[in-house]
Design a protein that fits this description.
2 domains; 153 residues; 4 helices; 20% strand; Calcium-transporting ATPase, cytoplasmic transduction domain A; 3-stranded antiparallel β-sheet; alpha+beta; single chain; 8 strands
Length: 153
């Protein structure tokens, strides 16, 4: 899911748009009309400091969210061009050979070709017990579904 990136200048200027900013701006206008320039300077400084701190905090939080988003992306070990590669799961195509190990999140619906695996499908089926999977012989019981977690060989 792609997100629209806003220019940092526009994000900073948005800090001056809102109820609290409008109240401070109104106080600044009234201070200027009443010729209380010291109040004008103090309130103006508060407005700018508030905008800067808010912008910095939001920027830092966005960086943390982006780091978490990257960390949570599901990747897959796939055999392509005679070598094993790690790619994002969204780039898998039908026919890819995927290596699944215990502890891995199954990156897509797969059919086991060799070996046996115990799969935690509780998020998909609601069953609390792991499902044992083996090489599929066109049996739906032996298919592993994307999003399940491999628990043991």
């Amino acid at each position: 899911m792609a997100q629209k990136k806003e220019h940092p200048v526009f994000k900073f200027l948005q800090k001056f748009w809102g109820i609290s900013a409008w109240m401070l701006e109104l106080i600044m206008v009234l201070s200027a009309v009443l010729r209380k320039f010291s109040d004008l300077a103090v309130v103006g400084a508060l407005l700018v400091i508030n905008a800067v701190l808010s912008f910095m905090q939001e920027h830092r939080a966005a960086g943390v969210v982006e780091a978490l988003r990257k960390r949570l992306q599901v990747s897959a070990r796939v055999r392509r061009e005679s070598s094993w590669q790690v790619i994002p799961a969204r780039e898998l195509v039908p026919g890819d050979i995927v290596r699944v190990r215990p502890g891995d999140i199954v990156p897509a619906d797969v059919k086991l070709l060799t070996g046996a695996l115990s799969i935690d499908e509780s998020a998909l089926t609601g069953e609390s017990k792991d499902a044992d999977k083996g090489p599929a012989v066109c049996s739906r019981r032996d298919l592993s579904f994307g999003g399940a977690k491999a628990t043991a060989w």
